[in-house]
Automatic annotation (TrEMBL), chain A:
Top-level division of the source organism's lineage: Bacteria
Domain (MlaB-like STAS): residue spans on this chain: 11-87
Species: Rhizobium giardinii
Alphabetized Pfam families for the sequence: STAS_2
Name used for this protein in its record: Chemotaxis protein CheX
From TrEMBL, chain B:
Annotated signal sequence range: none
Phosphohistidine PTM positions: H46
CDD domains in the record: CheA_reg, HATPase_CheA-like, HPT
GO MF annotation terms: ATP binding; phosphorelay sensor kinase activity
Keyword ATP-binding carried by entry: yes
Species: Rhizobium giardinii
Protein name: Chemotaxis protein CheA
Top EC group: transferase
Keyword line: ATP-binding, Chemotaxis, Kinase, Nucleotide-binding, Phosphoprotein, Transferase, Two-component regulatory system
Pfam families per record: CheW, H-kinase_dim, HATPase_c, Hpt
Every Histidine kinase domain range: 363-614
Role according to the record: Involved in the transmission of sensory signals from the chemoreceptors to the flagellar motors. CheA is autophosphorylated; it can transfer its phosphate group to either CheB or CheY.
Length: 97, 765
């Protein structure tokens, strides 16, 4: 089935995803385009709205590229903040890993 | 800090608490039924008790305990604060003050009195009528459960526990019937659209939303429609916006205050939604999040470089904790709640009351305690600065022939600045007369008790400010006068009723500012001065000749004479014949004046006018026989250049000046002070018309007027010795010392009385 074996890349998010990290994260994501991506958010202790924006923009772009964009692991803090600010990431959770 | 210092702070706080206690009780006496007033009173006694316990001041503790127990009955609506109950309470406040004083300064209290009051307080606490009076039986309010849908907090008094302590009414709103309460909280729609600046300035939308979530139950919808694809986005720009539905009892202000520090960097709309309306369609997919619990993990997150919001949030959390602790420990500290808490409480009546009080608390402003010595040192230094500045500008003027240099401009600015600094520093010492007035309330109560008269003290303008020195020295003369007003001025109730007045006499004490002075008026609605009696007494005491022709005003003023008393018998309170004489001298010593006006059958009014400060004085600088003198401006009515035709000789040495068809004695200041041996020619000088004691006018002869200026008073007594006829000294711009004239002493000397020590104006050093 998997004739097109796209390269799968992974990205581990920094513990603090604040204003300063938004640019870095954006840069990292831009560099990872064109392949399926698995994001490890288990180390995240704090996440700001800007980084959530970057991640969601990434998800949008990946979707346009027809590549998969999924979170493998998420920390409690990450889940709670996204919940708090009304951003639903359930559909981005990797189901079959 | 050693124990004594801590103790001293305790006593200072006691003073404040006692003042709070008394003013609270007086407000209750005037019919104020605000539960917060009762709480304030209770709190005051409770704090004193607590502090006294720490220092093992057992007498104070045991009395405060009984007092507190009775107050608690009032607080829990078991005891109605009737006039009779409050009478006992006011007396108890007096005893509490006495006990505090004794604990601090030593001495003894009237044991019988405090024992009697303890009995009365205990009787009240047990629901019995006060032993002394036929008060209506205190009504025992049945404890009501706080189960009403919207419990009115006052009515929601809970059952007291075995110690008679009752949980505070307001606190229960926060607990019982939580679910019901949740449903009733008003709903708000909040639209929050951050701008990019919000993030670049270090604010964080997530934290703001978290704060918001703490206010109540909320559901949130994040609008991410404007989010571009990754390659087109600016990672630091704001794309998300939020629509939040929140139910909170804290009100719109609390919602807005969450965004307080970000309001310029976001678009914010807060709309009150219909309380009955459910969550709106857009947010349906999102579960309602019981956020406060859910977010516990976030609270522990590391606090790296964060904006103001985080701190703000910590403060809020601390406040919440404090509030909760207070509620739990049943210590009502509503005043400690900040305006933030006040803003949060809206809707229910309790909240409104709390808000008022919190506002009052915040209106009181922040204060620090400063040692008076330090303030005085500062005032002294500023005084020196003023003098130095004057000297500097004078020497510049002298050395600068054309007088328009930039230095002059700079000096003028400096002068303004120093004047402003001086005013501000003086304002530090300025204090409201309230504490003194409050002490008078006690005096009135005690005297009314002893004389068996019924008296109401009405005070006005208690917040009028005046220098602390003046306040400190005001208490004694005022006490004398109040005693006189109640003892001599007011009639016995029967007599008042017979005269068609109410049985209760009124003594009114007012303070106001008038043309740079403080005017204190004490009036009573008593019988007024019995002029016949005064006149007869004066004749008996050889103060006036039997056939002397005196105006009403002159007769009234006789009461200020030393050794004069009209009381038929000498009582404990007044009538020792020193009262009004001492009063007048104390007022004069403060640089003030006192007047009396009396209407038979309608009462008397004593008017005192005092300087606002004893540190500076507006004076007229004059030359007398080559000396420079300063005449206090307040004493001067007018100045005039005498015309030869207006000068008339009178007797051997006296001269009169005719001013607008009346004659006024001419007083040669240089001659009185022995500056010169012979009398000066009035036509060559200037006459200063001054108001002297007793209302008469005198024309003071001086050689020339140099000008008017504000001078810093330097005590002559403290630095040299007392000089008769001279009130104090000052240093002029040229560095020379100028003497400040004691106008009343000079006028008295012109009447033939030798210049003596007693009539001098004591100046603040």
């Amino acid at each position: 089935m998997a004739t097109r074996k796209a390269a799968q890349k992974s990205l581990s998010l920094a513990p603090v995803l604040d204003l300063n990290e938004a640019n870095t994260l954006h840069g990292k994501l831009m560099a990872l385009r064109g392949s399926n991506l698995v994001i490890d958010a288990s180390a995240v202790e704090r996440v700001g709205a800007l980084c959530v924006q970057v991640l969601l923009a990434g998800a949008k772009s990946w979707e346009e590229d027809k590549h998969s964009f999924a979170f493998s692991k998420v920390s409690d803090a990450f889940t709670k903040t996204t919940q708090l600010i009304g951003v639903n990431i359930d559909h981005l959770m990797a189901k079959e890993i | 800090m050693d124990m004594n210092e801590i103790k001293e702070i305790f006593f200072q706080e006691c003073e404040e608490q006692l003042a709070e206690l008394e003013s609270g009780l007086l407000r209750l006496n005037d019919g104020d039924r605000d539960p917060e007033t009762v709480n304030a009173v209770f709190r005051a006694v409770h704090s004193i008790k607590g502090g006294a316990g720490a220092f093992a001041l057992d007498d104070l503790v045991s009395f405060a305990h009984v007092f507190e127990t009775t107050l608690d009955c009032v607080r829990s609506n078991k005891l109605e604060p009737t006039q009779d109950v409050l009478k006992v309470m006011l007396k108890s406040a007096d005893v509490l003050a006495d006990l505090t004083n004794v604990a601090r300064d030593g001495g003894s209290v009237d044991q019988a009195r405090s024992a009697q009051l303890i009995r009365e307080l205990e009787a009240l606490a047990k629901g019995e009528a006060p032993p002394a009076a036929e008060a209506p039986a205190p009504k025992a309010a049945a404890p009501k459960a706080a189960s009403a849908p919207k419990p009115a907090p006052v009515a929601a008094a809970a059952a007291p526990n075995d110690e008679g302590f009752v949980p505070v009414a307001f606190s229960f709103d926060d607990f019982g019937g939580e679910e019901e309460a949740m449903i009733e909280h008003p709903a708000y729609e909040v639209v929050f659209k951050p701008k990019s600046e919000l993030y670049t300035k270090g604010n964080e939308a997530t934290l703001l939303l978290r704060d918001l979530s703490r206010l109540g139950e909320m559901s949130i919808h994040c609008n991410m429609d404007s989010l571009p694809p990754l390659d087109q986005m600016d990672p630091e720009a704001a794309y998300f916006s939020w629509k939040v539905s929140i139910r909170t009892d804290k009100g719109e202000d609390a919602i807005r205050s969450v965004f307080e520090f970000a309001e310029w960097d976001c678009e914010l709309d807060v709309i009150a939604a219909d309380a009955g309306e459910g969550a709106d369609g857009e947010t349906e997919e999102l579960p309602m999040q019981p956020v406060p619990f859910d977010l516990s993990a976030l609270d522990e997150e590391p606090h790296a470089p964060l904006g103001v919001v985080e701190e703000e949030e910590q403060i809020a959390a601390a406040q919440e904790a404090v509030t909760a602790a207070q509620t739990a420990s049943n210590v009502v500290q509503m005043a400690a709640n900040t305006s933030r808490a006040a803003a949060a409480e809206k809707g229910a009546a309790a909240a409104a009351a709390a808000q008022n009080n919190a506002q009052q608390a915040s209106a009181a402003g922040q204060t620090i305690r400063v040692d008076l010595d330090r303030v005085d040192r500062l005032i002294n230094l500023v005084g020196e600065l003023v003098i130095n500045q004057a000297m500097l500008s004078q020497s510049v003027i002298e050395n600068d022939s054309n007088g328009v240099s930039s230095i002059n401009m700079g000096l003028e600015e400096l002068q303004q600045l120093t004047r402003e600094i001086q005013d501000s520093v003086m304002a530090i010492r300025a204090q409201p007369v309230k504490p003194v007035f409050q002490r008078m309330a006690r005096t009135v109560r005690e005297i009314a008790d002893i004389t068996g008269k019924s008296v109401r003290l009405v005070t006005e303008g208690e917040n009028t400010e005046v220098d602390k020195t003046v306040i400190d020295k005001l208490a004694e003369p005022l006490t004398h006068m109040i005693r006189n007003a109640v003892d001599h001025g007011l009639e016995m109730p029967e007599k008042r009723l017979a005269a068609g007045k109410s049985a209760e006499g009124t003594v009114k004490l007012t303070a106001k500012h008038r043309s740079g002075r403080i005017v204190i008026e004490l009036s009573d609605d008593g019988a007024g001065i019995n002029r016949e009696k005064v006149r007869q007494k004066a004749i008996d005491n050889d103060l006036i000749a039997a056939d002397a022709n005196l105006s009403d005003e002159e007769i009234d003023n006789l009461i200020f004479h030393a050794g004069f008393s009209t009381a038929d018998k000498v009582s404990d309170l007044s009538g020792r014949g020193v009262g009004m004489d001492v009063v007048k001298r104390s007022i004069q010593a403060l640089g003030g004046r006192i007047n009396i006006s009396s209407k038979p059958g309608q009462g008397s009014v004593f008017t005192m006018s005092l300087p606002l400060t004893l540190a500076v004085l507006d004076g007229m600088v004059v030359t007398v026989a080559g000396q420079t003198l300063v005449v206090p401006l307040t004493a001067i009515v007018e100045t005039l250049q005498p015309d030869a035709a207006a000068i008339h000789s009178f007797g051997a040495t006296q001269r009169l000046i005719s001013i607008r068809n009346s004659f006024c004695p001419l007083v040669d200041v240089g001659r009185i002070l022995n500056f010169r041996a012979t009398q000066a020619n009035p036509v060559e000088g200037v006459a200063l018309l001054v108001e002297s004691e007793g209302g008469g006018q005198r024309a003071l002869m001086v050689d020339a007027i140099q000008g008017q200026r504000q001078v810093v008073i330097k005590s002559l007594e403290a630095n040299y010795t007392h000089v008769p006829g001279i009130a104090a000294a000052t240093i002029l711009g040229d560095g020379r010392v100028a003497l400040i004239l004691d106008v009343d002493a000079v006028v008295a000397a012109s009447r033939g009385q030798p210049l003596n020590l007693e009539t001098s104006l004591a100046a603040a050093g």
